[in-house]
């Protein structure tokens, strides 16, 4: 049986990292932060970062977990709180995009790709519904009458052939 992978985990999905996994990660890193290389403090003061971020992983609906699974110690890093914040939100000093930016970008690209895919399928298979597009009202050019002028710039009526000099 083939497992179907969705693009991302459902909203609100997050499993708590067990203490045994946390200890395994800290021991593997020799109690050093992966970002700055300095010694980590107490386990309560240490933050654990999923690499790649959970929302950037594929979702396995059958296993009800991400791929790779959320609490796999090989994909978790121990960091200081400020080092973790730099990775999560990005850093203007280093011009790096954070996980939050990448997640938003990935969702935007996935949405536009899905819309494009549906449009292409609708062209080939008429049974596939085309994505609903909001109807925009047609823009109407503003109309205003322009004054009729003669050759020398004076107003004239339609029946007149020439300007004021044509009289007489």
TrEMBL record:
Report the domain of life of the source organism: Bacteria
Region of interest (Disordered), residue spans = 120-168
The species is: Bradyrhizobium elkanii
Q: What is this protein called?
A: HNH endonuclease
Question: Where is this chain compositionally biased, Basic residues type?
Answer: 135-151
Lineage of the organism: Bacteria, Pseudomonadati, Pseudomonadota, Alphaproteobacteria, Hyphomicrobiales
């Amino acid at each position: 049986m083939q497992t179907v992978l969705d693009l991302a985990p459902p909203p609100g999905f997050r499993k708590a990292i067990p203490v045994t996994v946390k200890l395994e990660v800290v021991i593997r890193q020799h109690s050093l932060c992966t970002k700055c290389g300095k010694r980590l403090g107490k386990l309560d003061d240490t933050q654990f970062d999923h690499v790649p971020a959970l929302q950037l992983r594929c979702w396995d609906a059958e296993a009800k977990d991400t791929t790779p699974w959320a609490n796999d110690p090989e994909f978790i890093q121990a960091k200081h709180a400020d080092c973790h914040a730099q990775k999560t939100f990005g850093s203007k000093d280093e011009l790096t995009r954070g996980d939050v930016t990448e997640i938003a970008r990935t969702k935007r690209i996935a949405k536009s790709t899905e819309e494009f895919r549906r449009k292409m399928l609708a062209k080939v298979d008429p049974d596939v519904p085309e994505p609903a597009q909001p109807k925009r009202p047609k823009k109407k050019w503003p109309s205003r009458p322009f004054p009729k002028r003669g050759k020398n710039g004076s107003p004239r009526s339609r029946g007149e052939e020439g300007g004021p000099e044509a009289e007489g």
